[in-house]
Specification:
Rossmann fold; five-stranded parallel β-sheet; two-stranded antiparallel ribbon; globular
Length: 118
């Protein structure tokens, strides 16, 4: 059961965020959205989500370069690195739970991710 679990989506693609929010809300996750890196970091600290979907190219920075520090500061958060441009995956700390998910994202991709962190 996913009731009470939190997901934070940091992505500047509004339509994608709304689709993901609808998908996860129907599965009883609490979903938080941010379209900028700085706002997303604030939500990350305030809400301590179970799962973070982190886009790479954001209006105020490169999301993936923040992933290692996020992993250190939030070791229980499962991190899903999202991008359409196949950037180099950052060196993640040992024992970090993370996955790379390429855009476009399909429902089967999301279902597979749910199985990993449900």
């Amino acid at each position: 059961m996913s009731a009470g679990k939190k997901i934070l989506i940091i992505d500047d693609e509004t339509d994608l965020c709304l689709l993901l929010k609808d998908y996860f809300t129907r599965r009883e996750y609490n979903v938080f959205l941010s379209h900028t890196l700085e706002e997303g970091k604030q939500i990350l600290i305030a809400e301590q989500p179970d799962v973070l979907f982190l886009d790479n190219n954001l209006p105020d920075g490169i999301g993936w370069t923040n992933a290692p520090l996020i992993a250190v500061n939030h070791p229980t958060t499962y991190i899903v690195l999202v991008s359409a441009f196949h950037p180099e995956v950052p060196q993640m700390p040992e024992n970090t739970r993370y996955k790379v998910l390429e855009k476009p994202i399909s429902i089967s991709d999301l279902d597979k991710q749910l199985a990993l962190f449900a």
